């Protein structure tokens, strides 16, 4: 969620006139903070997640699933429950109570844990429970026919052939978006959101135009010209854009910010021990962002059609693309006409364009993308003492205009406010976000990972969140090096969105990820004085250095860099290094996640060995095996390790195809539905059944073989009994188990069951068994089943998890 301020929003001409003012004072605010926090060290590794839900309303009479626009009402009740729970809580646990927040769409909710997690495996084992608790709290505050689905894109958002909102009287005639498909009523009513929507359109000079290739099935018309577009509407000047070429043949056309910002995602944010560690983590995760986007792909349907993509990224990128034709290179630049100052190669919602670390492994050649900057901003930051690399990063962000300015917020005290800085920082929505500490002294330097799609179940969301957290620990502990040209990361981002990218695409990645060569000796020697902690809770020794203001762990390791002349972006390549092109290769997702051994050399006719220079000759250790090796070095109890292994097994299975992505599963569900006609259309009946099925799968009431691990449903039902407590929950779980067993018996009778006995336990079943033995599955906690008591329960459970993780 971006910056939410209260006040009166200025119209676009007034906002545009103040753009230079906001940029200038935003940088002064950054510098005021920079002087205070640039040497901050010793913060504990903490992190948190942001989960977004779509609230779906089921009409049993018409068999229709629509979007509930009751966000304001729901959040008000949730806030009241939160306040009531804070009054009742004891032992100072108020900050442990989960919180809920508004999002762009009025049908969306965002949830976060009440307090950040630690990075020890014991603390990580509490993440899934916290996510389930938040969903349960949200569910308790909804109407009986409403459910919170973690679904990336609602398949029938914006259809014109039926009702997709809970209020059928709403029509798309709003002045903010001027959309042919979406009424402004779907937009959050806070003044920021409709103003943001309108100003993106006004700055761009036209409506946004998003075109996704249609998935061509057996009966899809060729060429596909969408008959549901109101081609002849004449309500706004932009209504003619669709027939003038904005809507492409063989594509699904969307024309509003709501199509992108109305998607849900999963984001994780880490607090690092220092700015140096934050910059290093940022850099190492940049090449990982396309990989986890492909693994979490969950959005194959838009505006009532199946698309030939599996992920949302290009949709949301296009939805907030405010660049003028001159900035996009479609027209020649003409001075500062209409606020246009330079060419901009990307939307403000896109992948990053540079690395940030000063470590020696960060070769200047890696940041090889076009990199426009505000030269005045960069000069001011360097003059104030910020290094050229970080100065260029912020100068790149500040090529953008502010999109929303409140009249009450124009003049600020730059020493005590960060609003102008955040106005631009928070509207650069990139795959990674580098976040300075907020004003105050409780929070440190942070890095946000933003590319993942939200998953159907809390088990999946926890698995991918925990995987990313553990990967950062492995990166620091093993001093891994994932650097590769940024341009290849961009290629990977395009490939990650394609249909079945996990199974069909290859991705560029660095071949040698270990820092074992002498060219990194300076970084290695800096590390010898303090090795990074293997438990994620600070350095293993030398704590007095941090207390005395010295460098902390990885902060020392990540400080040396090739000399970069002031004012320039990159130094010349070091002569002793091999060409960058020799450092990376193409790998499948399976090879990147699970590892790949180099094939044995083939013998030629003379008996000599030969090796191919093709991608098949490159080995790779695998990200999951690297994380497993990190866990092997820790002292972890059996049940906690079983939980970690269950999460890693899910990631591994998604990568090797044993379990399909959510996008593939949803696509198969739609195509196999009796009402599907093979024409790429997702009709009302299909959408209704899909949403119902997704809810049942999440609850553990229905198995999803090939999508979720064996034993998921049983584990989920047992968790419900244990965590919700009470006879009602036990009865519901028993009924769900009976229904699942009956369905299993039916499948066996039809010859679909495998009938095997004595099979080894799946990782998920093993984790459930270990947890059951350790804690006693089915032991009710004796709380009432309502939202307030659930909030209290969550606070106490989080506190207990942290206490156990800290040890006696």
UniProtKB/TrEMBL annotation:
Pathway: Sulfur metabolism; glutathione biosynthesis; glutathione from L-cysteine and L-glutamate: step 1/2. Residues 532-555, 609-619 have a biased composition (Low complexity). This is Glutamate--cysteine ligase. Keywords: ATP-binding, Glutathione biosynthesis, Ligase, Nucleotide-binding. GO terms for cellular component: glutamate-cysteine ligase complex. Belongs to the glutamate--cysteine ligase type 3 family. One of its GO terms (molecular function) is ATP binding. It is an enzyme of class 6 (ligase). GO terms for biological process: glutathione biosynthetic process. It comes from Jaminaea rosea. It comes from the Eukaryota. SUPFAM superfamilies: Glutamine synthetase/guanido kinase. Residues 519-577, 596-620, 748-770 are annotated as: Disordered. InterPro entries: GCS, Gln_synth/guanido_kin_cat_dom. It catalyses: L-cysteine + L-glutamate + ATP = gamma-L-glutamyl-L-cysteine + ADP + phosphate + H(+). Its EC number is 6.3.2.2.
């Amino acid at each position: 969620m971006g910056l939410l301020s209260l006040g009166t929003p200025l119209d676009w001409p007034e906002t545009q006139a103040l753009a230079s003012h906001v940029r200038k004072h935003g940088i002064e605010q950054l510098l005021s903070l920079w002087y205070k926090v640039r040497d901050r060290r010793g913060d504990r590794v903490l992190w948190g997640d942001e989960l977004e839900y779509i609230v779906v309303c089921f009409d049993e009479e018409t068999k229709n699933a629509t979007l509930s626009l009751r966000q304001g009402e729901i959040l008000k009740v949730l806030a009241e429950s939160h306040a009531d729970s804070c009054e009742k809580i004891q032992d100072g646990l108020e900050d442990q109570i989960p919180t809920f927040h508004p999002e762009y769409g009025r049908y969306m909710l965002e949830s976060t844990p009440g307090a950040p997690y630690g990075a020890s495996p014991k603390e990580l084992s509490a993440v899934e429970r916290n996510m389930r608790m938040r969903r349960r709290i949200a569910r308790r505050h909804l109407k009986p026919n409403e459910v919170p689905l973690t679904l990336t894109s609602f398949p029938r958002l914006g259809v014109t052939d039926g009702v997709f909102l809970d209020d059928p009287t709403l029509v798309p005639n709003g002045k903010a978006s001027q959309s042919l498909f979406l009424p402004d009523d779907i937009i959050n009513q806070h003044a920021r959101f409709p103003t943001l929507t309108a100003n993106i359109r006004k700055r761009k000079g036209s409506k946004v135009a998003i075109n996704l290739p249609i998935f061509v099935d057996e009966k899809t018309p060729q060429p596909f010209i969408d008959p549901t577009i109101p081609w002849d509407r004449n309500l706004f000047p932009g209504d003619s854009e669709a027939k003038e070429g904005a809507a492409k043949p063989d594509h699904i056309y969307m024309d509003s910010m709501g199509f992108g910002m109305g998607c849900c995602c999963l984001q994780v944010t880490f607090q690092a021990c220092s700015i140096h560690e934050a910059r290093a983590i940022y850099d190492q995760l940049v090449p990982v962002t396309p990989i986890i986007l492909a693994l979490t792909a969950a959005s194959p349907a838009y505006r009532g059609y199946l698309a030939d993509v599996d992920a949302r990224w290009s949709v949301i990128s296009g939805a907030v693309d405010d660049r003028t034709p001159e900035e996009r290179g479609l027209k020649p630049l003409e001075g500062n006409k209409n606020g246009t100052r330079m060419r901009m190669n990307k939307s403000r919602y896109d992948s990053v364009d540079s690395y940030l670390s000063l470590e020696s492994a960060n070769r200047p050649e890696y940041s090889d993308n076009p990199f426009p900057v505000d030269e005045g901003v960069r000069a001011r930051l360097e003059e104030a003492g910020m290094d050229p690399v970080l100065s260029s990063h912020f100068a790149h962000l500040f090529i953008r205009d502010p999109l929303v300015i409140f009249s009450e917020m124009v003049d600020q005290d730059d020493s005590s406010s960060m609003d102008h800085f955040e106005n631009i920082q928070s509207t650069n929505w990139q795959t990674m976000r580098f976040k300075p500490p907020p004003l105050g002294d409780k929070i440190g330097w942070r890095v946000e990972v933003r590319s993942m799609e939200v998953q159907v179940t809390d088990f999946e969301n926890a698995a991918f969140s925990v995987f990313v957290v553990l990967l950062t620990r492995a990166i620091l502990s093993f001093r891994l090096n994932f650097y590769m040209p940024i341009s290849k990361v961009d290629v990977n981002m395009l490939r990650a969105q394609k249909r079945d990218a996990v199974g069909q695409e290859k991705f560029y990645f660095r071949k040698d990820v270990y820092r074992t060569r002498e060219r990194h000796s300076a970084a290695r020697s800096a590390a010898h004085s303090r090795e990074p902690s293997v438990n994620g809770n600070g350095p293993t020794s030398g704590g007095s250095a941090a207390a005395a203001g010295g460098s902390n762990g990885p902060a020392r390791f990540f400080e040396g860099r090739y000399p970069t002349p002031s004012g320039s972006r990159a130094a010349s390549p070091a002569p002793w290094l091999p060409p960058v092109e020799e450092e990376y290769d193409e790998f499948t997702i399976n090879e990147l996640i699970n590892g790949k051994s180099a094939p044995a050399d083939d013998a030629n006719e003379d008996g000599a060995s030969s090796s191919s220079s093709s991608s098949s000759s490159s080995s790779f250790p695998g990200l999951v095996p690297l994380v497993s090796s990190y866990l092997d070095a820790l002292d972890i109890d059996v049940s906690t390790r079983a939980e970690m292994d269950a999460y890693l097994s899910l990631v591994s299975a998604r990568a090797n195809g044993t379990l399909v992505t959510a996008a593939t599963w949803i696509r198969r569900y739609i195509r196999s539905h009796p009402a599907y006609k093979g024409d790429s259309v997702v009709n009302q009946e299909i959408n209704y059944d899909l949403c119902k099925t997704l809810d049942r799968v999440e609850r553990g009431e229905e198995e999803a073989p090939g999508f979720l691990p064996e034993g998921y449903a049983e584990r989920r039902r047992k968790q419900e009994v244990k965590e919700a407590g009470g006879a009602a929950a036990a009865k519901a779980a028993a009924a769900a188990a009976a229904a699942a067993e009956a369905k299993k018996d039916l499948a066996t009778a039809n010859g679909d069951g495998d009938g095997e006995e004595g099979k080894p336990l799946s990782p998920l079943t093993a984790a459930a068994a270990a947890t059951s033995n350790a804690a006693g599955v089915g032991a009710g906690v004796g709380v009432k089943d309502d939202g307030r008591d659930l909030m209290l329960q969550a606070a106490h459970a989080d506190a207990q998890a942290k206490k156990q993780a800290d040890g006696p």
